[in-house]
Specification:
The structure is a single chain. The chain is α/β, with parallel strands linked by helices. The protein has a single domain, classed as Rossmann fold (3-Layer(aba) Sandwich). The chain has nine helices and eight strands. The chain has an eight-stranded mixed beta sheet with strand order 1-7-8-6-5-2-3-4, sandwiched between helices. Strand 3, helix 3 and strand 4 form a beta-alpha-beta unit. Helix 2 packs parallel to helix 3 and helix 2 runs antiparallel to helix 6. The protein starts with a helix and ends with a helix. The chain binds zinc ion.
Length: about 260
Amino acid sequence: MKKTLLLSSAARRLKNITQLLNWRETKNILSIDYELKELRIPEKSSIVVLSPHPDDDIFGVGGLIGSLSKKMCSIHIVYLCSGESGTVSGASDTNLSETRKKEAIAALVLLHGDTTIEFLNQPDGSLQVSAKIIEKLSSIFKNHKPDYIIAPWFGDNHEDHQTTFQIMRKSLLGISPDKILLYEVWTPLIPNRYIVIDDYIDAKIMAINEHTSQLSSRNYIDAIIGLNAYRAGMIGEGKYAECFIELTTKQFDTLCALY
Ligand SMILES: [Zn+2]
């Protein structure tokens, strides 16, 4: 049993490394302008954020969400799973999903009081690409007509995060957002956009602290804020930053055709 787990973990890591190497190749094929630049989302943009679990939005884009409150952007957050498997043992706890929904709402209020949210209640830990979920997400995209769709990047090392990317990809038929913005949680990405979040770091820390049920299993404050500090340090601006891959719909389509 242990051996199988080890092999599966190693295979997963290898898959991610391969994806990363492919990504380097892909940058050349797509001729993406890969200079690292400050992210600039226009005022009053319509934005849909896909969050696999009820804390990934805060971990990956909490500072960005805070900054958008000043830009009068409308933000709709879609939680694919409700987090019932977010226990120390990983066992499912049906009561936990209700707790985590409340935590997600409390966290968001600290960063951007005007967000709207939606829980799709898919199985936590075994999220699947299905016709039903694709239809649901397509209809959300059609209703909100997002200028930006924000989602986990394709190499993020958690099955539900990679599946969220695949669901998003398959739900885009007939939808043309201006940009797709991919964020990092479990695995750092190779960024082409960043935003300094010094003005929102206190609110982001408070928002992470709202996810009380999750903080006993891992020190997410040090992990996520540490990542944000590393990003700012390497960019050479501010003290904390969030990093992204930003793609036009055309670049995204070309990228997806390669995988
Ligand atoms: Zn997650």
